[in-house]
Amino acid sequence: MSRAERVAVLGAGSWGTAFATVLGQSTAPVGARAEQIVLWSRRPEVAESVTTRHENPEYLPDVELPSHVSATTSLEEAVRESGVVVVAVPAQTVRATLARVRDHLAPDAVVVSLVKGLERETDARMSEVCAGELDLAEDRFAVVSGPNLALEIARGEPTATVVASRSNATAERVAALMAGRTFRPYTNHDVVGVEVGGVVKNVIALAVGICDGQGLGDNSKASVITRGLAETTRLAIALGGEAETMAGLAGLGDLVATCASPLSRNRSAGRLIGTGLTVDEAVAAMKQTAEGIKSVSAVVHLARQHGVEMPICEAINAVVNGELEVSTLAELLLSRNLKSEGRRA
Q1: Are 9 and 40 in contact (CB under 8 A)?
Q2: 127 is in an annotated binding site
Q3: pLDDT one-digit tens code per residue, 71-130
Q4: Was 168 annotated as part of a binding site?
Q5: Angle between the 291-305 and 191-213 helix axes, to the nearest 10 degrees?
Q6: Which reactions appear under catalytic activity for this entry (predicted)?
Q7: Hey, what domains does the chain have and what are their CATH numbers?
């Protein structure tokens, strides 16, 4: 078996497991699809369940995994001889995970990020973390992002996504690995825009969840979503991304899905905060990481460095840091000087 036919997925949470399922259901021709998919899990009981019973009941209940998906608790075993390594761990643990992987990674392996967060200490996007920690060339990196709620995907409900890489060949290779009857990947070259869209939408989803928890209606939530997209676009452009990306699956599509669905971890965390729980209590009540809580400070710091106004993100950052009472948040979410909604709004 060649390395190209073996894929490692680092992280056996809901999205990592769902993505392994997508890979296992690819309709690509032999040679372009993964013949062996290995999930890395920190927890032995999860690895055992995936390998022997083809299920991950804690994160994806009632979902049967493809027979050629197995799991291990050994990072070395997961990445060994893998032509593609998929990173699906929380953003704040990516660097430490990659440091353990570095010496076992094949020299021509492609790294794919599913992570939608920024590193707090450095404000780095995951492409930057991977490049720095693995000395990874641009043509060996891709990011996958879009309206991709894990449980819906694992159940086989139709959706589309974006695979972005500076290399068209790499984007097409990764897209072929995951293309299936119900999962449609599109390729893109705008790595920055796709990453920024995936990061900031989590913060906006927190805001929408808080609105929901406070009993505010659809007008309020739609306004936050729309202005949140404007904030996301401003930051993406300032960092070198493209406005067109924000109108696509990795921008508007992901934002709508994350803000609207009860399956969204960030919306759910925001709703808990809106009902009166502290941030720590909301985090404790969540099964998996709400990346918006972890990344919002980095988003705001990055925006300030580049002179980008992001009032919704600023307000959520103040709530997360305990500097603002959630009861006063609603009136601040849309607080900017009156101006045109047109360009540069």
Answers
A1: yes
A2: no
A3: 999 999 999 999 999 999 999 999 999 999 999 999 999 999 999 999 999 999 999 999
A4: no
A5: 120
A6: sn-glycerol 3-phosphate + NAD(+) = dihydroxyacetone phosphate + NADH + H(+); sn-glycerol 3-phosphate + NADP(+) = dihydroxyacetone phosphate + NADPH + H(+)
A7: 3-189 (3.40.50.720), 192-332 (1.10.1040.10)
The first and second tokens of residue 290, run together, are 């709400």
Q: How far apart are CA 39 and CA 71, in angstroms?
A: 4
Q: Is 261 annotated as a binding residue?
A: no
Across the beta sheet with 159-164, the strand order is 69-72, 36-40, 6-10, 84-87, 110-113, 141-145, 159-164, 183-188
Is residue 201 a known part of a binding site? yes
**Closest of 158, 129, 157 to residue 141, by C-alpha:** 129
**φ and ψ at residue 187, rounded to 5 degrees:** -100, 155
266 is in an annotated binding site: yes
* Number of other CB atoms surrounding residue 113 within 10 Å: 26
Q: Where are the beta strands (DSSP E) in the chain?
A: 6-10, 36-40, 69-72, 84-87, 110-113, 141-145, 159-164, 183-188
Tell whether the torsion through CA atoms of 282, 288, 294 and 299 is positive or negative: negative
User: Which token pair is 49?
Assistant: 């369940």
Active site residue 221: no
Active-site hit among 201, 287, 294, 339: 201
